[in-house]
Amino acid sequence: MSEEPILSVKGISKSFGGLKALMDVSFDVQRGEVFGIIGPNGSGKTTIINCITGFISTLAGQVYFKGKEITGWKPHKIADAGIARTFQIMRPYYSLPAYKNLIIPLWSPRARKTGGWRGGGKHGDRDTVAVDILEEIGFERDSRVPYKLSSTLPTGYQKRLELARCMALRPEIIFCDEVFSGLSMSEIAGMLPLIEKMRDEGITLIMVEHRLRELFRVATRVMALNFGEKITEGEPSFVIEDKRVREAYLGTEEV
Ligand SMILES: Nc1ncnc2c1ncn2[C@@H]1O[C@H](COP(=O)(O)OP(=O)(O)O)[C@@H](O)[C@H]1O
Ligand SMILES: [Mg+2]
Known about the structure:
Number of strands: 10
Helix content: 25-40%
Order of helices and strands: EEEHEEHEHHHHEHEHEEHH
Radius of gyration: 18 Å
Bound molecules: adenosine-5'-diphosphate, magnesium ion
């Protein structure tokens, strides 16, 4: 691991009033990894994504992307640098057809520089690129799902739409906040190959997940949080055997 990490998080702390949501959390992610972040409800998983991606400020700590400090940057600047994220609470534009949700990311400075995913995206034809991206992420073009109103999409498609909006930026890193939650086993089974495909395209994935079994099928390494503190980190088989992880999840999750 002599290579410089694509993402390096050093000593992040965050409080909400008197509540210490994150305490001195550090971790490194190498390019090409699928890095999992696990922990019981309220352990700080979404908060750490929010801190790294600039949606909330931090009390202490630094974030480095490819060796460059990005601490305190605004979310749009971080996205433009190549770090995308999904939202645990999905936020599509409900009144728009699915593919139109990709128009804003496709107009972003980054997508304009890169030409949209896979260099498609001729000017004036972003609708086609949007549908292409949706198709890559499992919206069958022939079924007309890409053209359906976002508000009418089943959860599985809304989760995919979150990923598609990330892909439109041609990011180097995607933070996924519980993309498997609310999905049936068969929907998750359909989603796993997409995760693998993104990884194979060279995207580094950082996945906050509650569905441990499914996460552990794709994760290279996992970090566990509990009450805002990092309790362990390592390969899935190592983390799952950790006594503190088992205790943290006791009664709340199948480990
Ligand atoms: N904006 C906020 N204001 C106050 N408390 C918050 C806020 N966001 C999160 N918290 C609290 O911080 C803790 C960590 O939350 P969160 O990161 O959402 O947990 P997780 O994603 O692991 O379930 C929880 O106790 C939560 O109630
Ligand atoms: Mg969360």
